[in-house]
Amino acid sequence: MKKPSIAMTIAGSDSGGGAGIQADLKTFHQRGVYGTSALTAITAQNTQGVHGVHVMTPEFVADQIRVVLDDLPADAVKTGMLANASIIQAVGEQLRKHQATKLVIDPVMVAKGGAKLLQDEAIQALLTQLLPQAHIITPNLPEAEVLVGRTIQNVADMKEAAKYLHEYGVAHVVMKGGHMLDHQLTDLLFDGQYFHEVEHERINTRHTHGTGCTFSACLTAELAKGADAVTAFHTAQQFIVMAIQTAPNLGFGQGPTNHWVQLPL
Ligand SMILES: Nc1ncnc2c1ncn2[C@@H]1O[C@H](COP(=O)(O)OP(=O)(O)OP(=O)(O)O)[C@@H](O)[C@H]1O
Ligand SMILES: Cc1ncc(CO)c(N)n1
């Protein structure tokens, strides 16, 4: 077998399997990439909500990253749920030590059911300790509003927010439009110079659990294989729309998407 590219996820476990580390690893696998992981927290979670959270110590998160990257250097790394500022600091330190490039930050703050996955005090740490070394940040609209400190109501606001976040040193900003109120959704990527926009129709479904995780995991897998940011963005966008369209109809709440989407590798 030809050696596969490696992608690492640093995130929380979703016991229900639709979001978090499980969505990331399934998506990495489906995109032909070998997935490794470091857990920041374990949630007791299903499609109906988060029933409990157990957070790892920053030292143990650092240990996982260190031993994995010493042995299995990642071609791209993504972060999801980071829980608190001490974990963010530990992650930042380890990634700098290992000179991890192609870092994708999905600034997970709240689960779809409303449970908090990041402490408020950690926002500043995310902005100052992870953004300067990141290749791409992928906020949804409520996350972007918190990071920027302004409301975002339309595509013009999304562009302003993207420019603001770019100032922190991240190479590309992807704004996900899943939370827009319109019938028509816009996702966009800002590379510091140009905006790349994708408009698509909202799919009327309850099966949107883990859409953000799945999208950013696909983006990370494409970067790991050597794609540029814009190409990776378009592939991830296609992947998530197909995954929502063909969701397996599981669970009594907001069900997972289809991680078996087949797109050319
Ligand atoms: N109902 C929908 N129809 C079509 N596309 C959608 C829908 N919901 C989300 N998307 C797409 O899914 C991707 C993820 O966006 P979204 O804003 O939902 O992420 P998120 O809120 O971080 O997800 P989560 O918190 O569940 O992981 C984007 O490309 C967005 O356009
Ligand atoms: C562990 C975890 N990470 C991220 C999300 C966001 O979808 C979630 N619901 N659970």
TrEMBL record:
GO terms for biological process: thiamine biosynthetic process. It comes from the Bacteria. Pathway: Cofactor biosynthesis; thiamine diphosphate biosynthesis; 4-amino-2-methyl-5-diphosphomethylpyrimidine from 5-amino-1-(5-phospho-D-ribosyl)imidazole: step 3/3; Cofactor biosynthesis; thiamine diphosphate biosynthesis; 4-amino-2-methyl-5-diphosphomethylpyrimidine from 5-amino-1-(5-phospho-D-ribosyl)imidazole: step 2/3. It catalyses: 4-amino-5-hydroxymethyl-2-methylpyrimidine + ATP = 4-amino-2-methyl-5-(phosphooxymethyl)pyrimidine + ADP + H(+); 4-amino-2-methyl-5-(phosphooxymethyl)pyrimidine + ATP = 4-amino-2-methyl-5-(diphosphooxymethyl)pyrimidine + ADP. InterPro entries: HMP/HMP-P_kinase_dom, PM/HMP-P_kinase-1, Ribokinase-like. It is an enzyme of class 2 (transferase). GO terms for molecular function: ATP binding; hydroxymethylpyrimidine kinase activity; phosphomethylpyrimidine kinase activity. Its EC number is 2.7.1.49, 2.7.4.7. It holds the Pfam family Phos_pyr_kin. Transmembrane segments: none annotated. GO terms for cellular component: cytosol. Residues 14-258 form the Pyridoxamine kinase/Phosphomethylpyrimidine kinase domain. Keywords: ATP-binding, Kinase, Nucleotide-binding, Plasmid, Thiamine biosynthesis, Transferase. Belongs to the ThiD family. NCBIfam families: HMP-P_kinase. This is Hydroxymethylpyrimidine/phosphomethylpyrimidine kinase.
